[in-house]
Amino acid sequence: MEDPVSNQSSNKTAAQDVEAVQISDPRDINESAQDDDLTCSNAPKLSLFGLFWYFFYNFGLFAWGGPVAQIALIKEQIVVKEKWITLARFQRVFAVYQILPGPEAAELCMFFGCLSAGRIGGIVAGLGFILPGFILMLAASYLYTLAGLENKYFNASFRALQPIVAAMIFKATHKIADHSVVKHSTKKVDPFLIIAAICTAINSTLHLNIFISLGLYGVIYMFIARRLWIPAGILFILQYAAYAIYAVFRGVPSPVSLALGIAKSPSLANLFLLGLVAGTLSFGGAYTAIPFVQVEAVLKGGWLPQRVFIDCIAIGNMLPAPLVIFATFVGFQGGNSEGGLGKAFAGAVVITLGMFFPCFLFTIAGHSLLEKLVHNKFLASFFDGLCGAVIGVIAVISFQILKSSIQGTERDFLTKPVELAVAKAAQSGTAAVLFTLALAILYKFTNKWATIVLVVSGAVAGQFLFLDDLSSN
């Protein structure tokens, strides 16, 4: 027979528990749920070979379309489908990596490798992601030395591939923006994050330094999240007032001011140093490293022609690799001009090692510190604002790539004879149609093989669409 006193005591305890739950502050429950979102990890424990193959096969071979497409692919596969971590944690990690040097896609692969198999796993995952692009860029550099993009067949395929790659980047921009402007506590679109993205895009067109914009909107959003409207408004106004004063007295900043004169000749030591400094300065990815390498190799050093440099950026955009892989091409051409093919391959290797060393160092060695940054509540709103602002930068880059892929470059309009230049200009309509068809196919077919099929089909189609008979005259 049950003891009535014991029953009464048990019921009283249960009632107290219910009451405690009822009077709990909902904000505490909300914060607890957010903490879980930022600490939850379901990463599988893979062997080192399994980890290498996972990132080599799933991302290294399919990393078409540049950094935006690569990040979207990683998020879709690992976060959305396989749920290694939550979307909230991914956004915070992605925001943290915006302030680190190096390509974000490679850093994200290293991060997930660390979750699966520790720091060694991070190194293995990074190598798996980078290796396919490095091998392909090395092969492309060698083929370019033999034939060059002046070859009419080679050029025709590239002309068709450019609008297709632009379509890949546009779709990827949309996928990344889906969650970058969402406030995680409410799961709704935050208008302030949209404003941050728009203003950062405007700042990019005004040639205001990207790092100033990203950091500034991170701080502004910190104030907004704490309802400190006056400091947020003052910072917002000050950015344009300061820019106006600088532009009046000093003019718009020139990329030449980045030059350090560290690669006056393409010796192996200079190439490694060029890659190391460019990699250290590449906050936000390759788009920061490009002007620095251009100034050092083309303007200051003078050992790399501007035309060849533009070609290497075009090839880098086509390959399944981080865009900073263009450095491999620069090193190959520099080494070749210095001492033939032997030095060309050595130059490609050393500049690539220099370019990727900083991101491996910061991501692998600083993994624990980065995890603390991800979970820091005080910095949470800063990273959310920064992540929203990045969308503005990505959008501007997407439009720039679209414009150049459809209209061509100034170099096309300097082509001789004049009839050939006119013919190239007339191909803009065909390129626009290719972009539209590629974008429709990418939205219709989400299988990862769709990108490979598009690239191969585009290369073949270019032989029929852009192979100008005038070029044989």
Automatic annotation (TrEMBL):
Residues 1-14 have a biased composition (Polar residues). It is a multi-pass membrane protein. GO terms for molecular function: chromate transmembrane transporter activity. The keyword Nucleotide-binding does not apply. Residues 1-23 are annotated as: Disordered. InterPro entries: Chr_Tranpt_l_chain, CHR_Transporter, Chromate_transpt. The keyword Cell membrane applies. The chain crosses the membrane at residues 51-74, 120-144, 192-216, 228-249, 269-287, 308-332, 344-366, 378-401, 421-442, 449-467. Pfam families: Chromate_transp. Belongs to the chromate ion transporter (CHR) (TC 2.A.51) family. This is Chromate transporter. It comes from Lepidopterella palustris CBS 459.81.
